[in-house]
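assembly run, all chains below
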Amino acid sequence: MASDSLNWFRFSSPATFYPLAGKMIPWFGWSAALLAAIGVYVGLFVAPTDFQQGEAYRIIFIHVPAAWMSMFLYVVMACWSAVALGFNTRLSAMMAQAIAPTGAVMTFIALWTGAFWGRATWATYWAWNARMTSELILLFLYLGVIALRHAIDDPRRADRACGVLTLVGVVNIPIIYFSVHWWNSLHQGATVSLTKAPKMAAIMLTGMLIMSFAAWFYAIAVSLARARTIMIDRERGTSWVSAVAGAAR
Amino acid sequence: MIEFLAMNGYGFYIWSAYGVTAIVLMLELSALRSRRRAVLEEARLTVPEDALDATGAAQ
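ok done. output:
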């Protein structure tokens, strides 16, 4: 009975996961592009002007999804790192490695768009408040993990070192998330929360959610594509990589 | 059109946010594409393990 069911562990080997990831990437990639197009249209053309912030609030459609992704990707990276450290599995470490650059990109976008939103509404690009400082630390954590990886020649040692650094850095995530709740500062409180009704118009919320799904699918597609590149690089010399490289000619 | 781009005076902030986001995502995608090409090229130049005999020479 159990042996008839799909064996998910089959996909824990790079040789079997590589083609599966290859099939998933176009679906996630094109969904991301389509959702982003709809989301930008809703954000710039359909959503009405905010009565407090005027047009400046339209940055929210990028800022909030990017900020959510920056935190979420870190948690996913930490989960893969924990699995890699606990079970010494190659693919999990490769997935963690693949997520870091996209996490850094999302964090940068959150900080950058936040700076311009801040300039427009608070008249300053930057303030050293808890939310912004902890998000900046998140960027340094991502960059630190990437730099540590490049500093260690043996990939398996690099997996362990990066895994430990990633897990230590997880403490920063609840600090970012709750910072606007714990400390009163320039940064506004959460507009959307799991426990309360959203404090924004339905069409604005819709646009933001569409952009969030776009960010999700983009991150999945890009992480999978990067994981495939990492697999080819790290499994070089195996027959499956030679077959893949030969076929891609 | 001009009115739309001006965004009631907030155009600079909005387009800086949207524009740089688009540029950063394009850069990530193009970096990934060139990295993929490079590792595939390197893999093509590597002889697979099972094509080697016991002495390590290519068959």
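The two ends of chain A are 42 Å apart (CA to CA).

The first helix of chain A runs from residue 14 to 46.

not gonna interpret more than that til we talk
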